[in-house]
């Protein structure tokens, strides 16, 4: 494997700094807190740490609105704290991946502060400004966090585009000065020794020519799909790669809402020289509400056959042509065991291990979101004032109070099922005060189940989800067939069991996962296997699959 391809051998651990570990007792996670916990991440076996944004920000979208790309948010610490974290991580042979948010900045960034003043200053064309059309917004695009994607600025007598919050103006990537400014930001962090970037909604940076309306009825989801994977995206990513990324030994992943496998092959293809891999959204966008105006806000479970069809499409679609990221959850998604498994105490551990086995034996680079390795669950909030996320709150007000599309109790059920807040409750380190996250009142509510789901208890239990993840990561590190094997789907229509094979250099790996709480039996020839690689029941009844049982076999 060439030096440049080490991303195929790695497992990434995602840290949401605000909720990971507080060290200065202000109730907010910080960089020294992460440094203090590096040994824990190393013990899990991860190779890379993805840090959600830690830059100076007014935090209208928890750091995804950056006001200064070269300064650390004081709530997280200083640049010296960052340098200390980076050095200690490297001493432990852990790489650091930063979150690069360059589709938009904060409206408090000095570029925007200048841009909005006049039409003829050096930053006037750094953003996407348009004249009113018949006294209204330039088109019918809607923003991902509610309302129009346009906001009027009287000083300029123009609207500016923001695909997300009004405080997140979209950068104008058509402007070569914007691209060079972004490349300089990347060089700043890469020259400090950072090992790569997760690029936030990077497939939105090339806007469609003329910014035409989306087909009515416009929705936020349709707007994002309409803008995604624009006509100059490959050009911009190729320029970024040739001018910056190719000069360093980096790992890069592009967050690409709406991208297809065909798109992903263009960005991550073996000869594409753009990015290493993408975060696609198909499998986490399943079971949307039948009413398109409600988008993702739904409480229906994901159908296994649809989940299999989606993941299998990406496995077979990129096999030998590109590279997948593998993830069940992150800071934008509900907790995996609640969404795809079963967080009833009777089945939580088993189904968390089953989900991990199913994902980690696929082809691609696995991402573990903080707490996923404990089997942390959704928060199961019941009241609106328990929510913090701009997306949750904005859509409650828009869909319940303004547009009256859904009633309050129903929307609260949808939020409990799928809001981003589910992923942002503080990390659960122990069963003591504030779960060991902080000695001050945490910025966001703890999940009360920290009393029974926490790191300390997990490390003391050899059958914990933590040690199971550790085993899976070790299996990946030590088995080429897991890293590089091809993918063969089995029985796509089976709505109880997920099974697939991997093939590499004459060997075959067989994965069989029972996604139900029933005992089922399946025979894929596992009795002829040369060895059992892993089983979340620790013993094997061969053709019988107990509730949420997952196992993998090797055939030599
Ligand atoms: O998310 C992009 C994105 O598409 C998500 O907002 C997703 O569509 C939504 O959360 C689904 O409900 C990235 C970041 O991961 C997210 O945290 C930011 O809020 C967003 O971009 C804007 O920067």
Automatic annotation (TrEMBL):
Pfam families: Alpha-amylase. GO terms for biological process: oligosaccharide catabolic process. This is Glycosyl hydrolase family 13 catalytic domain-containing protein. Residues 14-424 form the Glycosyl hydrolase family 13 catalytic domain. GO terms for molecular function: alpha-amylase activity. One of its GO terms (cellular component) is cytoplasm. InterPro entries: GH, GH13_cat_dom, Glyco_hydro_b, O16G_dom_2. Belongs to the glycosyl hydrolase 13 family. It comes from Oenococcus oeni AWRIB429. It comes from the Bacteria. It is found in: Cytoplasm. The keyword Cytoplasm applies. Keywords: Cytoplasm, Glycosidase, Hydrolase.
């Amino acid at each position: 494997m060439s030096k440049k391809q080490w991303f195929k051998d790695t497992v990434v651990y995602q840290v949401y700094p605000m909720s990971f570990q507080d060290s200065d007792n202000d109730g907010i996670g910080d960089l020294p807190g992460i440094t203090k916990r590096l040994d824990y991440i190393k013990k899990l076996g991860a190779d890379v740490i993805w840090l959600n944004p830690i830059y100076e920000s007014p935090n209208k979208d928890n750091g995804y609105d950056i006001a200064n790309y070269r300064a650390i948010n004081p709530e997280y610490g200083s640049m010296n704290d960052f340098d200390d974290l980076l050095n200690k991580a490297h001493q432990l042979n852990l790489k650091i991946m930063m979150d690069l948010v360059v589709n938009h900045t904060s409206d408090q960034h000095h570029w925007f502060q200048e841009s909005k003043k006049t039409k003829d200053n050096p930053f006037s064309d750094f953003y996407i400004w348009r004249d009113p059309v018949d006294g209204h917004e330039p088109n019918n695009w809607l923003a991902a966090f509610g309302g129009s994607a346009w906001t009027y600025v009287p000083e300029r007598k123009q609207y500016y585009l923001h695909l997300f919050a009004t405080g997140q103006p979209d950068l104008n990537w058509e402007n070569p000065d914007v691209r060079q400014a972004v490349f300089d930001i990347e060089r700043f962090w890469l020259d400090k020794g950072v090992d790569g970037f997760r690029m936030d909604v990077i497939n939105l940076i090339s806007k469609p020519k003329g910014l035409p309306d989306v087909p009515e009825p416009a929705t936020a989801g349709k707007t994002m799909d309409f803008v995604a994977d624009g006509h100059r995206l490959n050009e911009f990513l190729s320029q970024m790669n040739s001018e910056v990324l190719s000069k360093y030994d980096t790992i890069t992943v592009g967050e690409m809402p709406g991208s297809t496998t065909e798109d992903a092959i263009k960005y991550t293809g073996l000869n594409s020289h753009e990015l290493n891999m993408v975060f696609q959204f198909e499998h986490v966008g399943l079971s949307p509400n039948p009413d398109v105006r409600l988008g993702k806000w739904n409480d229906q479970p994901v159908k296994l056959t649809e989940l299999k069809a989606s993941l299998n499409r990406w496995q077979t679609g990129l096999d030998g042509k590109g590279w997948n990221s593998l993830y069940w959850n992150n800071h934008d998604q509900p907790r995996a065991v609640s969404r795809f498994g079963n967080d009833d105490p009777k089945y939580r551990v088993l189904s968390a291990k089953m989900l991990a086995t199913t994902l980690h034996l696929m082809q691609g680079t696995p991402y573990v979101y903080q707490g996923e390795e404990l089997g942390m669950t959704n928060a199961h909030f019941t009241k609106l004032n328990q929510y913090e996320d701009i997306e949750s709150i904005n859509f409650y007000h828009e869909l319940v109070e303004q547009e009256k599309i859904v009633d309050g109790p129903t929307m609260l059920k949808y939020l409990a099922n799928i809001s981003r807040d589910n992923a942002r409750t503080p990390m659960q380190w122990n069963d003591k005060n504030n779960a060991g996250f902080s000695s001050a009142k945490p910025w966001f509510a703890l999940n009360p189940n920290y009393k029974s789901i926490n790191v300390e208890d997990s490390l003391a239990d050899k059958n914990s989800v933590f040690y199971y993840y550790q085993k899976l990561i070790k299996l990946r590190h030590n088995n080429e067939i897991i890293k590089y094997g091809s993918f063969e789907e089995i029985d796509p229509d089976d709505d109880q069991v997920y099974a697939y094979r991997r093939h590499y250099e004459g060997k075959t790996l067989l994965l069989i996962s029972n996604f139900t709480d029933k005992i089922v039996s399946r025979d894929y020839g596992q009795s002829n296997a040369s060895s059992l690689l892993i089983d979340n029941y620790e013993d094997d009844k061969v053709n019988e699959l107990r509730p949420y049982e997952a196992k993998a076999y090797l055939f030599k």
